């Protein structure tokens, strides 16, 4: 008799855990859809405001927003959670003025330092970069992989989990 009661308690606990996990999954699904909508709206605004500007890239670093040299109004508008993360910041000379700009994560590694480029800028946000005098040399910007990452990639190639180069 006690085994039946014990079994039913375990079953009830498992069902409660399953229901809670399902509710979390549904909540994350709807939050994800909302975030995608918000991202699409922001992308439209960025595309509407973009301009092509020639600039000389002085320096690029990943740094906290407080240390970045961005205007105080921008720092005040950022959410509290974003103030602790490091952003890709590019210091560039646009015309006679030296400015700190936020760069897109996707192109940050391809931005050449101490070179003149044509960049697509929306406000203080760099969305794309093209070489002003010929193509951008990306071979210098490629970081060397650690021994562990090389080992993992080698194992993935042998296992067939990753296409052979």
Q: Characteristics of this structure?
A:
3 helices; five-stranded mixed β-barrel; alpha+beta; 41% helix; 2 domains; 165 residues; OB fold (Dihydrolipoamide Acetyltransferase, E2P); extended
**Rg computed from alpha carbons, rounded to a whole number of angstroms:** 24 Å
Uncertain runs are none
Amount of beta strand: 25-35%
CATH topology term of the largest domain: OB fold (Dihydrolipoamide Acetyltransferase, E2P)
Which strands sit side by side, in order, in the main sheet?
A: 1-2-3-5-4
| Shape category | extended
Can you walk me through this structure?
There is one protein chain. By secondary structure, the protein is of the alpha+beta class. The chain folds into 2 domains: 1-48; 50-131, OB fold (Dihydrolipoamide Acetyltransferase, E2P). 41% of the residues lie in helices and 27% in strands. It is built from 3 helices and 5 strands. Strands 1-2-3-5-4 form a 5-stranded mixed barrel. A hairpin with a 2-residue loop joins β2 (86-94) and β3 (97-103). The protein is extended, with a radius of gyration of 24 Å. The termini are far apart. The model has no long low-confidence stretch (mean pLDDT 85).
């Amino acid at each position: 008799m006690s085994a039946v009661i014990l079994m039913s308690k375990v079953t009830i606990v498992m069902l409660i855990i399953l229901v809670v996990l399902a509710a979390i999954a549904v909540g994350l699904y709807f939050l994800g859809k909302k975030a995608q909508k918000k991202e699409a709206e922001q992308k439209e605004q960025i595309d509407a405001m973009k301009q092509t500007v020639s600039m000389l890239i002085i320096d690029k670093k990943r740094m906290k927003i407080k240390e970045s040299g961005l205007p105080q109004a921008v720092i005040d508008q950022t959410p509290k959670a974003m103030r602790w993360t490091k952003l890709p910041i590019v210091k560039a000379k646009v015309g006679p003025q030296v400015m700190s700009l936020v760069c897109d994560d996707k192109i940050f590694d391809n931005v050449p330092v101490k070179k003149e480029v044509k960049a697509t800028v929306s406000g203080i946000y760099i969305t794309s970069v093209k070489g002003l005098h010929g193509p951008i040399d990306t071979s210098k910007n490629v970081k060397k992989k650690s021994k562990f990452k090389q080992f993992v990639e080698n194992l993935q190639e042998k296992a067939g989990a990753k296409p052979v180069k």
